[in-house]
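Entry 0007
Protein: Major facilitator superfamily (MFS) profile domain-containing protein
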Amino acid sequence: MEKDNSKEVVDSASLLNRPVHLDKAIEMIGFGYFHYYILFICGSLYVSVAFSVTSISFIIPSAQCDFRMTSFHKGLLNGAMMIGMLIGSFIWGYVADSRGRRFTLIICMLMDGLFNILSSVSQMYSIFIFCRLLSGFGISGSTTLFSYLVEFLNIKYREKFLSWMEMFWTSGIILVPCVAWLIIPQTFRIENEYILFKSWNLFVIMCSLPSITLALLLMKMPESPKFLLSQGKHKETINCLKFVHRWNSNSDDKFPVTSIIMPSSNDKSNNSFFDGLYKSTIDLFTSKFKIIAIVTCIIHFCATTSYYMLILWFPELMNRLRWYETYSNFQNKTTMCEIVSMYKAEPEVNNLKCDDHIDQSVYMNIMIIGIACIPTSLVVPLFINKLGLRFFTVVSFFGSSISAAWLYFITSSMENMVLSSIFEAFSSIGISLTYCITVELFPTEYRGMAASIGTMFGKIGALLGNILIGIFIDAHCIVPIFVSSSFLIISAFLVITLPKTGRTNIITDGVL
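Output (structure tokens):
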């Protein structure tokens, strides 16, 4: 187990009689067991987010007969969670900056888990979609986990630990189809005059358990020391650092720091909720960080628009290419957009009998796309300290832009599978690293709000991307391809304009 106990701990006598800057105190608690545990907790939170967000891909086809869903109803259900996330993203940032990181994560994960369980026993479409909307509202606050994680780390380990989060997301993307594959094909049903419970209902419950379990584990964790100090809670900050020091040193040795340099207080307790929310937003966009806030919001918007515009389209595109391969003589190869425009409903689609069966190839394809993300998820943490967050973010956006543009030239479902994997690997890690950059660039009093507003702009982009792909997919599919590729290039260039993070971070005022 790696240990990094600072030399200042040994020479503690001279420190007892003078206050210590918080960054120095965090170095003095050492690096060890606690930090690996908090990485596990925050990483598992990210896995549960993947479960909650992507499980809808398997729920919709499995529940379409029970809820008698049309294509419109499916689209509404798919967008309900995003609408909830869009609303929640703005609110939870203020809660995280005024009430605490740990508090926000506990409430959000409980909301997600409990409303998912409630949706699993819903017998009406309207109740189910309402529960999914509230689940999205809760899960949107999970972006606070980046702030919570980074505020326990000294500068040496921040970028590496943040970059490991993508590996946890990838694990979630791989595990969701595995769980679905094990549960949904089962044919059991519990039915009486009040309730119908089938395999997909059980799948929803299984996807909710990680959120509830992690909320309970978080209750045993301390609040972020940087948040505590930013609120003027000096004694609680010292106790938090002592707790981490005991865990890392695995002994009862006393933590030598008894006084920490106090930042300006960020107490919002006298404000009403909505007044505080308004003031926090105005403070962010009128502070010296306003340009960085605007740029990061644009990056979130462009990158997330591109991601959701294409990633939700890949299964449909694969289906149309499979139709072309089945019913075409392959004498005249053509572009992907021409194949898409030629698509006609397959004969079995016209069968009036409702079919809620999911072909096994769907589970396999999604697993393959998730597995394809593993190499990038492993490479980034290994070289992040040498090359930096900005380098990998820019490379990710350029790589995903090229794969998006190349979609125009594909002519087979195999080529689509390869490009889908490349696009998912690069774009997902680019978005994750954008969150990492955001929490690195902003001081504690603005960090939660900045990350949440960036997420809000991302969800606006996701909704617009879905609308755009729906309008142009049949007649002018070159439009979403061009927009997606262009937005990723814009994101890459905007990342280059941001200040460097890590050891050379220029933001030194306030509590980092």
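Curator remark: Strands lie at 189-191, 196-198. The first strand starts at residue 189 and ends at 191.
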